Amino acid sequence: MAKRKRKNSYQQALPKWVISVFAVIAVILSILTFGGDMIGLDTSLLTECMNTIDRILYGGPTSPTPTLPTSGQAKVYIIDVGQGESILITTEEKSMLIDAGENNMGDDVLTFLDTLGLEKIDYAIATHPHSDHIGGLDTVMQEIPVGEVFFGPIPDKIVPTTKTFEDVLDVIEEKDIPLSTTTPGQTIDLGSGAVVTILGPVTEDIDDLNNTSVVCRLDFGETSFLFNGDQETPMEELLLQSGANLDCDMMTMGHHGSSTSSSQEYLDAVSPEYASISCGRGNKYGHPHEETVEKLEEMGVEYYRTDLSGNITFTSDGENISVRTEKP
Fold first, then answer.
1. Percent of the chain, pLDDT > 90?
2. Dihedral of CA 191/194/195/199: which sign?
3. What pTM, to 2 d.p., does this model score?
4. How far is CA 108 from CA 29, 112, 127, in A?
């Protein structure tokens, strides 16, 4: 059962004329941002100004209002790719692939897509350039059309030179696939009332590739899902400070359930009913770590692990979420 979202009363405390002024400013900034994007200007400052207005009016960046009415179902598939991660989102209209596991898992992801009858992927997000997340993405893009690919911002000082990263970029260039860099507050419409919102990373001052992970949420009707990639505690703290709307019904556990992610403060802000952990059987990292599992159990979160349950499917009708597992 989806949780009812807590209403923020902060806006009600502001005089109406103040709200009107900020609303007008937000519209002007939105127009300027759109124009700047069209001619290739850096609009990050304008975006931050709009986020600041959101924090003043609502206590944080507003989550998008999904296109109404919602229709059909939104499905989130946690694909079992061993010690890696791959997630597929589908609606009646569009699809999004988030990562594709290790280099040897591309064919497994393709097989999974084929079982669903998918002949194309509308959007692909490469959360961060570690092989256990993007390794199989080049194989997928070689064999199935992809409409657009998104990377998070990667500071020049830590841009990888690995063959895995270069292979992905080579296929994107070869197939002439549009490539974009995500920004917080950006939305991607998946149709049928489903909207994906980019939440992080909220800074480009990053020294570790895990913390460049694209963090995003899916809203479908009254239900919501949070995808954390491999972001660790320092980035979680910055995301909390940003005022981003983190409250969700389901979340993927950061960094495969590592103790370096999923702080108690972060879990409290998300307050999920369900969680998934992508990890391989008997992996050498000991994922998921005992501390993470204990937190979930103490909170009463219903969690699922790919090493124990195989593929995991979360299905939303816009009001309720159901879960199905498929052991390998």
1. 76
2. negative
3. 0.80
4. 44, 6, 19
